[in-house]
Design brief:
The protein is of the alpha/beta class. A hairpin with a 2-residue loop joins β9 and β10. The protein contains eleven helices and 13 strands. The relative contact order is 0.15. Strands 8-11-9-10-12 form a five-stranded mixed beta barrel. Strands 2-3 form a two-stranded antiparallel ribbon. A two-stranded antiparallel ribbon has the order 7-13. α8 crosses α9. 34% of the residues lie in helices and 25% in strands.
């Protein structure tokens, strides 16, 4: 079955980027000149997603406005024959249907995904976290949907993170099936290194069956006092197979300041209109450090 629906949870406060995120949603902070959430939406489009649900909260109106039509701006750009800018403004909204729902209380990622139940219905669907931007030849989500079509079960996007970083992620206990595909036995949310079953971490991309919603309904508050998607997926694995796929590509942890800065620099160096002048600037800067 083809995956056509995706969910982006974007209701968090973004406290790690205060004071910038006091008035601006973290997901709207730009990498060069594009909001981080747009990179996620573009990956969804490139992966065959036709309907996108963004979970927001109060104070996130800028996200809604970004994916809406901007009639006055578009009219001015069209009048002034600024086609490239006009295309950039329309890049996402013309290619995918974007819906929104509010998470009224901050109860964790699992609760945010549960808010998507009516949108998803009885279909398998994708979850894409905005803190993870992946650069790859084949879109990260596309890699997962292809695996889902083969195994017919939930598939988590994973990579090895090193034992020194396991306390930041949901860590899998799993067995290799073939190649990059694993079968999950269990998963632990942010374990200490000495308690981690591996260094294989779930990294912001999931293709899930709708059965996960019944699990989320029964999931108690876990790590951090929140309803964890990790706990619901472990519960799901008790009744149906759950797989993990070690996706190809470079992942940027946009949820950290270091990852955000790395992405900004590397994305700028990858652009023809910026790389020469910006690269020359960085070389002169390095000499002064």
């Amino acid at each position: 079955m083809k995956i056509t629906k995706a969910v982006i949870p974007a209701a968090g406060f973004g406290t790690r980027f205060l004071p910038a995120t006091k008035a601006i949603p973290k997901e709207m902070l730009p990498i060069v000149d594009k909001p981080t959430i747009q990179y996620i939406a573009e990956e969804a489009i490139a992966s065959g997603i036709t309907e996108l649900l963004i979970i927001v909260s109060r104070g996130k109106d800028a996200i809604v406005n970004h994916f809406d039509k901007a009639f006055e701006l578009e009219a001015v750009l069209e009048r002034d024959n600024k086609q490239a800018m006009l295309d950039a403004v329309r890049e996402v909204s013309d290619k995918i249907d974007v819906h929104f729902v509010r998470q009224r209380e901050q109860k964790g990622l699992g609760h945010a995904v549960l808010c998507a139940r009516a949108f998803v219905g009885n279909e398998p669907f994708a979850v894409m976290l905005g803190d993870d931007v992946v650069v790859s030849d084949k879109p990260c989500l596309k890699q997962l949907t292809e695996q889902f079509e083969k195994v017919g079960s939930s598939v988590l996007g994973v990579q090895r993170v090193g034992m020194d970083c396991v306390s930041k992620y949901g860590i899998l206990d799993c067995d290799r099936v073939e190649g990059r595909l694993y079968k999950m036995k269990s998963m632990v949310e942010k374990p200490k290194a000495e308690e981690a079953p591996s260094d294989i971490a779930a990294l912001g991309r999931y293709v899930l069956t709708p059965a996960v919603f019944k699990c989320l309904e029964r999931t108690p508050r876990g790590a951090g006092g929140e309803i964890q998607l990790t706990d619901a997926i472990v519960m799901l694995s008790k009744t149906e197979d759950v797989y993990a796929y070690d996706f190809e590509g470079k992942r940027y942890d946009i949820g950290s300041k270091q990852g955000f800065l790395q992405a900004t620099v590397e994305f700028a160096l990858g652009r023809d209109d910026l790389k020469d002048e910006f690269g020359a600037y960085l070389k002169t800067l390095v000499k002064t450090i």
